[in-house]
Design brief:
252 residues; 7 strands
């Protein structure tokens, strides 16, 4: 057991907006980092008392355990629609949807596109790990060409199932969204960039500027059959070639 001494300096504390619940995310998964970033942002903006988290089926399904704010579990793919309803019912609330790529860009395609097209004043966090992480490692709309999944054991064949969908680029063609960006978490610089992007997306909602989408490239060591270190390198060297990092829209 480590014993604190007078000359020790505390350099990090769990954000007040996060509970002490033990994480159930797999080792090396980036969901834990992202959860911490969102909690830190809620603290910094002082919005915990009016924040509502909308999490659907997927790896985010237990998000209500992590945050000290109200939360709603939505049906698979419907988080953007539920977030829209909550925000319209009480515009003073700060509502964010936390969605995976299979949820946001496949099962919830219609809800995701139309919430963005209406410019709903919500914040959407879109976690892209190129696979259905919780339901068995199936191919997602963002799975890379030749990527092996449980439904594409020989690798994704674009002649049969098409190419990875760059969903943020699709939404960026719409007139209404205020802010669309793609970030990652594979090293310290990118973590800091993601913190800045998440805060900007929440600030846009606080200031009633409309729809913000933060896509975050994430690892999935369990379904990728890679170590955490190899997974980070894969995102940095391979995934970012298909899904380039940076802002796509910023109309603040």
């Amino acid at each position: 057991m480590q014993v604190e001494t007078a000359d020790m300096v505390k350099v990090f504390s769990r954000p007040q907006s996060l509970t002490a619940a033990k994480s159930t995310y797999c080792p090396g998964c980036h969901h834990g980092i992202l959860t911490r970033i969102i909690g830190k942002t809620i603290d910094e903006l002082g919005i915990a008392e009016r924040t509502v988290c909308i999490a659907p089926v997927g790896c985010s399904v237990f998000a209500y355990n992590w945050y000290r704010c109200d939360a709603i579990q939505a049906a698979h793919g419907r988080a953007s629609a539920v977030a829209t309803g909550v925000k319209r019912a009480d515009p003073n609330l700060i509502v964010f949807a936390y969605q995976g790529d299979g949820d946001f860009a496949s099962i919830g395609t219609a809800e995701s596109i139309h919430a963005a097209n209406r410019g709903e004043n919500i914040t959407v966090i879109f976690v892209n790990n190129q696979v259905y992480g919780m339901t068995g490692g199936e191919m997602a709309p963002t799975s890379l060409v030749h990527q092996k999944t449980t439904t594409t054991p020989a690798g994704r064949d674009p002649a049969q199932v098409g190419y990875p969908i760059r969903f943020s680029e699709m939404i960026a063609q719409l007139d209404a969204p205020t802010y669309i960006t793609r970030q990652a978490l594979f090293d310290t610089r990118r973590i800091l960039d993601t913190e800045e992007a998440i805060k900007k997306a929440f600030e846009n909602q606080v200031n009633e500027k409309g729809y913000s989408l933060v896509e975050v490239l994430s690892t999935c060591p369990t379904n990728w059959r890679m170590s955490p270190i190899a997974s980070n390198k894969h995102v940095a060297d391979v995934v970012t070639e298909v899904f380039p990092l940076g802002d796509l829209v910023d109309r603040r």
